[in-house]
Structure prediction request, 441 residues.
Amino acid sequence: MSKKLLLKNAHIEGIRYFETYRKNGGYEAAEKALKMTTDEVLEEVKTSGLRGRGGAGFPTGMKWSFLAKPEGVPRHLVVNADESEPGTFKDRYLMEFLPHLLIEGMLISSYTLGSNVSYIYIRGEYSWIPDILEEAIEEAKAAGFLGKNILGTGFDCEIYVQRGAGAYICGEETALLESLEGKRGNPRLKPPFPAIKGLWERPTVVNNVETIAAVVPIIEISGAEYAKIGVGRSTGTKLISACGNINKPGVYEIDMTITVEEFIYSDEYCGGIPNGKKLKACIPGGSSVPIVPANLLLKTINGEPRYMNYESLADGGFATGTMMGSGGFIVLDEDQCVVNHTMTLARFYNHESCGQCTPCREGTGWMYKILKKIEKGEGKMADIDLLWDIQRKIEGNTICPLGDAAAWPVAAAIRHFRDEFEWHVNNPELSQTQNYGLANY
Ligand code: SF4
Prediction:
């Protein structure tokens, strides 16, 4: 049984409301933190080894320590709730069912960073959640946990919720800041990083919802105890949103010591693959990370079991590994067609490209068109090589990571499933009526 830190009270009826949350130990971590110095809280977060849960996995304590503190200039905490990565829906779960966990985490983090005005930037499509968050903010304020002179400490903090307008790119931190400033959500060139020049050119920390929520148990049990959970540099627990060909899709909290096999087949988590089908592949960290075929998914290149953590999933680098990413775990069974799947993702990235840089603007559209052609049985062998060439020219040559995110799924699909691409080229008639998976298993 995996240790629960974030979801331990998720089953309690009414936990969404302040009274129930408080009765079950809510805001005790905030009370504790507000009696500590900000340096002490920062030290706890550093000791915990917490890594950003949005995708990049950067150490949170280190990110916080980069925040510039020029005299007389306000600083901000901005929570990135623009959860738009296909396959990822764990932040939605937290905000919908445990909004006070996020608000409490924001209070502790805002205090530590010296942010008197903090923001939640939420994905536009999550249209019902801002009301839940705003209600929680009002409740916390009425109880003295937000507003002026919180708990008599002299610390003031207001939290505002800002709705996005449905653009995936606004999940990129600098595009998010542009959008929050009321402009078109185009990513900025870095440096300067937000820690130096962020929202309205003020020092800003942008963190994911789950990252900020995790600050609460870190203060509750101490950074050192948090660091004992998990393995190596994958400390603490991680929320995984599981979907695709599994019996039990949903949001699970894991402690990063379980194997991928256990996660897919155990009844505690995904409960196996429907109808006894075979596992073909998995995308373990949201649509941007490389797809991994079953044989490499269950074992690393060293023959060790593959674990659900940052290091083990990346074993083998981009040749055979993948990434923990945002924790959006997508399972494909033997009936699925990788070419069709990759084409769907390419269409998504093409649609979501902001268009600022040529390799991404032109390359994503080009990849989508070629994939569509191959999938329909109208491609040639040379198209597969062309596709490979285009993705290589996108990767690393763009302003923001969307370019890489568009290139990696295509690269991994060709690397691991070239036979499926070739099948579409060699079987033009069959390609129009069946997908590779159904025709070949
Ligand atoms: Fe825009 Fe794509 Fe360039 Fe990112 S990589 S800035 S999304 S064009």
Summary: The pocket of iron/sulfur cluster is lined by residues 169, 187, 353-357, 360-361, 398-400, 402-403 (CB under 6 Å). The CA atoms of residues 51 and 59 lie 4 Å apart.
